[in-house]
Amino acid sequence: MRIDKFLKVSRLVKRRTVAKEMADQGRIKVNGRVVKSSYDVKIDDLIEIGYGARTIKAKVLNIRETTKKAEASELYELVD
After folding, report:
1. DSSP string of 17-68?
2. pLDDT tens-digit readout, 7-63
3. Cα separations (Å) of 37 from 19, 30, 62, 79, 80?
4. How many Å apart are CA 80 and CA 66, to the nearest integer?
5. 33 CB contacts (<8 Å, ≥6 apart)?
6. So which residues are the signal peptide here (predicted)?
7. How many CB atoms within 10 Å of residue 8?
C-alpha cells in the first residue's frame, strides 16, 4: 500500500492529498530515509511525520485497505 493511502487509512493524516503533499515536500521519512508518496509501506516500517515543529514517529503493525475510525489506531504504534 502506498504511504499516502496508509496515512489516510490509519488517520495519522486526515486527507490523502495532504499526505501526498507532505511526502513531496520531504516531511515524511521511513526508516530514516525521506520517501515519496508512492513508497510501498511494509509491516515494521518506522514512519516519521514532520508537522511543523513537532514530529510523530509510528511503527506499522498492520496494513488494511479500509478501517473504521475506532480500529485505525490498531494499524500503528506510536514510538518515542
Report:
1. HHHHHHHHTT-EEETTEE--TT-B--TT-EEEEEETTEEEEEEE----S---
2. 999 999 999 999 999 999 999 999 999 999 999 999 999 999 999 899 999 999 999
3. 7, 11, 19, 22, 24
4. 26
5. none
6. none
7. 19
